[in-house]
Amino acid sequence: MKLTSQEIVTIKSAIKSRNKVKYLNYFLIWAHFLAILSLFLGLISTKELTVIAFLVVLMMIITPTYLGSPKYSTLLDILEKQVPEERS
Q1: Closest CA to 20 of 53, 86, 74, 66
Q2: Please, are residues 56 and 14 in contact by the beta-carbon 8 Å criterion?
Q3: How many CA atoms lie within 13 A of 45 on its CB side?
Q4: 5, 20, 33, 73: most buried, per Cβ within 10 A?
Q5: How confident is the model at residue 21 (pLDDT cuts 50, 70, 90)?
Q6: According to the model, what pLDDT value does residue 84 have?
């Protein structure tokens, strides 16, 4: 499987972006856990927990698309070139 240098750069960029999102999601899960713990300790109200929970979920949905990762279709184009065509 021969890849051009541009395709390798695109794939490495996708891997970096995936790793960023993974660590950010770990951080957001911990933030959510700490918010729930704070609720049980009486440090925040249920309204504040609702806002925090909504923001955490929203961030988890938005971050994969806005962290500068290459588009999914671009990665599929690279892979599509590598797959041999079927002959009827």
Answers
A1: 66
A2: no
A3: 2
A4: 20
A5: confident
A6: 65
